[in-house]
Amino acid sequence: MSNRLYNEPVLEAEAYCLPHFQTLENQLWSNSRSQITRHEASHHQYCTLDSSKFYKSPSTFSFSPSGSSPTSQQDSSISDSCITDDVGDLNYKLKEIKSMMLGPDSDNTDSYDSNNLQRGTHSEIDCKRQKMGLMMMMPRGDLKQALIACAKALSNGHLVTAECLMAELRMLVSVSGEPIQRLGAYMLEGLVARLASSGSSICKALRCKEPASAELLSYMHILYEVCPYFKFGYMSANGAIAEAMKDEDRVHIIDFQIAQGSQWITLIQAFAARPGGSPHIRITGIDDSTSAYARGGGLNIVGRRLSRLAKSCGVPFEFHAAAMSGCEVRPENLGVRPDEAVAVNFAFVLHQVPDESVSTQNHRDRLLRLVKSLSPKVVTLVEQESNTNTSAFFPRFIETLNYYSAMFESIDVSLPRNHKERINVEQHCLARDVVNIIACEGSERVERHELLGKWKSRFAMAGFTPYPLSSLVNATIKRLLESYCEKYKLEERDGALYLGWMNRVLVASCAWR
């Protein structure tokens, strides 16, 4: 999830209602099947990137919304042994391949000379062995293991093997299938982009036509409503701020990713109802061009909207715009006044700030030290509970696969597969992040998540101490989750809150002072 995802929809007070969920339907395949159904591809195309400009792979393709396989087009420069066109019975294919693989080691798919696995040396027997191994996985529903095998081959430099696996995987992933098929489509795009190029070429490969700003905002709105992850983050952060500021007369909230400003609607309303009257509220909104695009204009749009809301609630209010990325922020950009109680909000943003592994400037820790120098009463942190920052490619691939598998499964429960906008939601709100994590390195890899344990170390080194979330916040979030699927799990541990899907924690929230 990139910062585009946190450009939450513009919501008025009455719009904060929970969605009505529909039951899971339209199962497209089952692990009990003994063969893979290959669907015809539609001409209506969905893309994550245009990697074909940089990589002449065994087949070029684009995603189809109606079929389980992408549109495939043969490249005559690659050996036909890497391509499967026959849609007949898999057992027949296995028998045919085995009959072509002579010798006592014909069933040993690992007994090949690694010297042959260099790009440009196309060993037909090695390719067939890899294809046979892949097809033996598929009847058992092991698409996940096939993706891992492809990533492992790429990690080990076995490029021809990786290409063969990619050619087969293209026939099995689908943006309209089961969660693992849909995620697999985007993860395969990441693998193709990684194989294709590096450095600036990857950035070019990641380009895809942006939807209109109104459309992008609508996709964000859908995801915001069908999953509780972002409401959980905003509610827990607001609860900590309200608790810390309950006796303050002048409150200054610094939001390092204000997006649409919707997080602050409920907090302004809560301050309006505070016994003894509302404090004077000033919000500094920090923002970048991505959020401005989704919003359809500059921060003045957010300022006007929040000002109207505050006026209607009788709350004294000021808005201060800081149109820059978090890396550019300096103390003078924040305009903190001596008579204000300061609250700082880091909701789903710090993971995109580069640390010492990317730049000697280490903006991630620099920002924390800067915030500490403001003497804030409370600092809120909401982040994805994932470890992709400094991990090498292969473990990072595994972590991304496991994390987003849980997220795609949770979407599947509340957003039916025949929902006309589901493909757009996943493509524009999630797929870009997946591809960035897998394909990019260095400064071009902006999605760099850390586990809460690492964040705690960074905050402690900057001089912060934990600010435990109150029991009232926990109770409020539990009520929120009652309206969602029972597979969402809330856990309180060591002063922090964790929200997950089944046994996988996805989002963590905590506060500091």
Helix and strand topology:
Blueprint: E1 59-62, E2 71-74, H1 90-100, H2 124-137, H3 143-155, H4 159-169, H5 179-196, H6 200-205, H7 213-226, H8 229-244, E3 250-255, H9 263-272, E4 280-287, H10 289-295, H11 299-313, E5 317-323, E6 341-347, H12 363-373, E7 378-384, H13 393-414, H14 422-439, H15 452-461, H16 471-481, E8 488-493, E9 496-501, E10 504-512
Parallel strand pairs: 3-4, 3-6, 4-5, 6-7
Antiparallel strand pairs: 1-2, 7-10, 8-9, 9-10
Helix pairs in contact: 1-2, 2-4, 3-4, 3-5, 3-13, 5-13, 5-14, 7-14, 8-9, 8-16, 9-11, 13-14
What do you see in this structure?
With 513 residues, this protein is of the alpha/beta class. Helices cover 40% and strands 12% of the residues. It is built from 16 helices and ten strands. The chain has helices at residues 90-100, 124-137, 143-155, 159-169, 179-196, 200-205, 213-226, 229-244, 263-272, 289-295, 299-313, 363-373, 393-414, 422-439, 452-461, 471-481; strands at residues 59-62, 71-74, 250-255, 280-287, 317-323, 341-347, 378-384, 488-493, 496-501, 504-512. The protein has an eight-stranded mixed β-sheet with strand order 5-4-3-6-7-10-9-8. Strands 1-2 form a two-stranded antiparallel sheet. A hairpin with a 2-residue loop joins strand 8 and strand 9. It is globular and about 75 Å long.
